[in-house]
Amino acid sequence: MSAPSRLTLFSLAALSAASLALEEPSALEAAEPRVLQGSYLRAEDHRVGQVAYRIAALAGPLCPASSPLTGILYHHLNEYESADRSGMIAQFDLDRGLGVLSVIGDSPAAAAGLTAGDVLLTVNGRSLNLDPALAPPKSTARRAALEAAELQIEQALAHGTARIGVLRQGHQTELSLTSRPGCPGRVRLARSRQTNAFANGRYVTLTTAVLAFAQSDDELAIIIAHEMAHNILNHPDRLDSEGVPKGLLRGIGRKAQKVWATEAEADRLGIRLASAAGYDVAAAIPFWRRFYAKFDGPQIFRTHPSLGARERIITETIAELNLGAQRPELGKGALPDR
Ligand SMILES: [Zn+2]
Q1: Helix (H, G, I), strand (E, B) or coil at 60
Q2: Which residues surround ligand 1, an ion (CB under 5 A)?
Q3: One domain for residues 304 and 192
Q4: Are 166 and 77 in the same domain?
Q5: 266 alpha carbon to ligand 1 midpoint, in Å?
Q6: Residue-wise pLDDT tens for the chain (338 aa)?
Q7: 262: CA distance to ligand 1 center in Å?
Q8: How far is the CA of 46 from the centre of ligand 1 (A)?
Q9: How much distance in Å is there from the Cα of 44 to the middle of ligand 1?
Q10: Are 173 and 190 in the same domain?
Q11: Domain that holds residue 317
Q12: Nearest-10 crossing angle of helices 284-295, 307-323
């Protein structure tokens, strides 16, 4: 009998452990096409992006380092299956630059006049770092060009207003884009049947399956804020530097304690972030109960604390927030786009 493939192992892990994992299975995006049967994920991306933007913008005072938020959700030709690329070029000119998939309302991007369907060509007169050679459809490099261009735009915005060269319906124009400070809020959606979410230090990734599992934006905010907290607290780097093994071995042995400690920290900060953005954090406990009822597995595979431990941390954090509810900076921010 042949050994199980890497993908099978990850699938097994997803089935047997209640894992909103810290670590992104490298096989995930390679295995799952972004476009399936001609549909693409604009509405789903927008919903995830909107919740992430709201948390990042309104929880800014809770974050030690500030990030320039624009409210742009990007897409790139690399993310699409080969068979779908010609259609994406015809519809969106995606061979010309970085596509604007969606724009969050009441954001700097909306104020700049950017709209879905625009293609970004330049920033402050310089071409975007978009490698013209397309990544093979199933390679892990399929997000690299988008991430490099997104970083280039953020770096320009760190110095103030940026001039953005835009292709719109065949015509080139230039817009002035600003940003607002907030928590690091980069988020992406991966089409996958694994009910999971990941933090890799730079991005939060949610799968379409976990998006479908969330019954409200409040639950979605609990998931996103938890993963965002891992990135804000530098957990991926910290666990790597402490020599904690990756993958299935992560939840096993002495070093599992270090992983569980990061989970407790991410739960605490995540609840505070979601609360600061005005989400109903009371949704957290029913969400985790449902999640554990469906996905919990043997202790040996567990990369996360038990449901009981998790409930205690969340209850304590909500109680602390209620005690501090008089503090005006929390939960009072206005952001009508919900
Ligand atoms: Zn976690």
Answers
A1: helix
A2: 263, 266
A3: yes
A4: yes
A5: 6
A6: 333 222 223 333 333 344 566 555 554 544 454 544 445 678 899 999 999 999 999 999 999 999 999 999 999 888 887 788 888 899 899 999 999 999 999 999 999 999 999 999 999 999 997 865 677 655 667 788 888 999 999 999 999 999 999 999 999 999 999 999 999 999 998 888 888 899 999 999 999 999 999 999 999 999 999 999 999 999 999 988 988 876 655 556 667 788 889 999 999 999 999 999 999 999 999 999 999 988 876 655 566 788 999 999 999 999 999 987 755 554 445 554 44
A7: 7
A8: 23
A9: 22
A10: no
A11: 185-323
A12: 170
The reply to whether 265 and 302 lie within a common domain is yes
DSSP 4-39: PPHHHHHHHHHHHS----SS--THHHHHS-S-BTTB
User: How far is Cα 45 from Cα 168, in angstroms, rounded to an integer?
Assistant: 21
What CATH number has the domain bearing residue 163?
A: 2.30.42.10
Instruction: Calculate how far, in angstroms, residue 20's C-alpha sits from the geometric centre of ligand 1.
Output: 5
Look at the chain and report how many structural domains it folds into.
2
CA of 21 to the centre of ligand 1 (A): 5
171 phi and psi, to 5 degrees? -110, 140
Nearest to 57 by CA among 278, 264, 263: 278
- For ligand 1, the distance from its centroid to the CA atom of residue 90, given in whole angstroms, is 40
Cα 229 to middle of ligand 1, angstroms: 8
In a domain, 84, yes or no: yes
Whether 162 and 233 map to the same domain: the answer is: no
Q: Ligand 1 centroid vs 314 CA: distance in angstroms?
A: 13
Residue 137 lies inside a defined structural domain of this protein? yes
Q: How many CA atoms lie within 13 A of 234 on its CB side?
A: 7
Looking at the structure, do residues 189 and 174 belong to the same domain, yes or no?
A: no
With tokens 């974050």, the residue in question is 63
Question: For residue 272, how far is its CA from the centre of ligand 1 (angstroms)?
Answer: 15
